[in-house]
Design brief:
The protein has 16 helices and 16 strands. By secondary structure, it is of the alpha+beta class.
Length: 445
Amino acid sequence: MPFAPLRGFRDYPPPDAGARSELWRRMRSVARRCGFAELETPSLESLELFRVKSGDEISKQLWAFVDKSGRDVTLVAETTPSLARVFVDRAKAEPLPVKWFTISRLWRYEEPQSGRTREFAQFNLDILGVAGPAADAEVLASAALLLDEAGADGLYAFRVNDRALAESLGRRLGAVDRDRFFRALDRYRKISAADFRSELAGAGATPDGIAALVALLARVGDGVPPSAFGEVLAELGAAALDDEGRAGVARLTRLLGELDRIGLGDRVVFDPTVVRGLAYYTSTVFEAFDRAGDSRALFGGGRYDHLIELFGGPPTPAVGLAIGDQTFELLLRRHGRWPDGEPALDTYVVAVTPAEAPTAREIVEGLRRAGVSADADLMERSLSRQLKEAARRRARRALIVGPKELSRGAVVERDLATGAQREVPRAEILPGRDGPSPPSGRASE
């Protein structure tokens, strides 16, 4: 009976595993360039860690169980609780600000669909210890560079909002159930207009309030650029908001201005429907979306200024975001930017007859120890089959080891892009050794 992955889980055979590895390599490199240090945490945590932190939405999705020692544990569904646990343990000795990134494998028991699996990976960026919008701008600017160098340049934009502004707006519209009002905003682009109005009414919004919000969101469309933010604020009636709402407006104004100054104004918009579902977000929230129109978020994040205190740590402002692997893969594939897979091989060493195979493997070992990616045939295939394998592996060159050349202490080097070849002394095939001028060498037949 053949076996298959469980529902909601995926295999990543070559070349997909190599492509994913290449993406993580690019993203990890950018995070370090931006001053983030890597943090690694366990895949299994105490269930209590998530009970302290998570709202109902994610708690229902946990893969929780009792282990053999009778402890309530769970597979990790998101990295932030583990990050908070680590920070609290190190808070007294950790210089601020803390800039950490993580690459984590996570599990959520939710309904699988395109772009959503039960096991997935996330790339997180977090900054702890900075209260102002400079940290928000820093994490978004770092994410922009990371997405660009991973292949998504020009494909995405950021939507930003402030939960205090959204909550204040809801109160002004008559909503008394904040959570239901937030759920309605979050689902604005996913449900019908009638269902949206019904959800707002269920949250307590007045008919006039509902009509005003629907008109505003129609005006906003896919979001408002920084240059039009003030105009839309006037339509929001920002002057009539309460103190918390006006504070949210001030934060957004500073954030949008900062992003515009550092050259990201063309990829950020204000969107009053962005509220994020997790309960721990405190003010600024943001998402990245596909400019081509897919409504699913490529990443989500925001400020969680009180979370560290929940775990017994000192008051610590914090901001972060998480990029999911599944939606990001769909974006890159849809636009033809998914990596090729494993990097191309530099050198494939070909043995003309089985007698030269030991020498070919000896050359391979020398190349590898010199830092060159190299491989050779292990199946005693013919010369032509080995050269086809070298081409399949996208090797830059083939070193052909034949009896005539070996008798002269040489091999034939063939450029697999042009077909040009030359005879090279064995002593000169390692990096840093210049070979002779390329004669028209010919491999032994």
